[in-house]
Protein: GNAT family N-acetyltransferase
Organism: Pinibacter aurantiacus
Amino acid sequence: MITVRPATIKDLDTVADLFDQYRIFYKQASDIPKAKEFLKERMEGNESVILLAFANDEAVGFTQLYPIFSSVSMRRAWLLNDLFVKTSARKTGVGNKLLNAAKDFGAKTNAKWLILETSEDNFTAQSVYEGNGWQKSSSFFYQFNL
């Protein structure tokens, strides 16, 4: 059985381990202490919301949402910046549960929309997103790297 709940500071070690694996997937060096520090700052500063997925009692994935705002609608929106599922738990519905939990959270907070970005060649993730009702947008294509 897969469950999803918001992470708390008590989950820091668990989330940091998953976050480190996520970063390794994106070809970053492992750095658990830095991951803990980064996540602790986000959690303590209420700068993000982390949803943690469990299969039975094992943490198997997470998603991290950052608040943004829509000036035109004068409402909050959420950037789904990170989503990760352990290799051993892929294709078991964990990603779907996390995406649904993010949508529920967005609705609960009266958000205007949720947005995410993934690599152009991450076809597996794209199919999961599209299968959950997310739509590709050709309207927005600007990026400025600092």
Notes: The beta strands are 2-6, 49-55, 58-70, 75-85, 114-116. The longest strand covers residues 58-70. The mean pLDDT is 91.
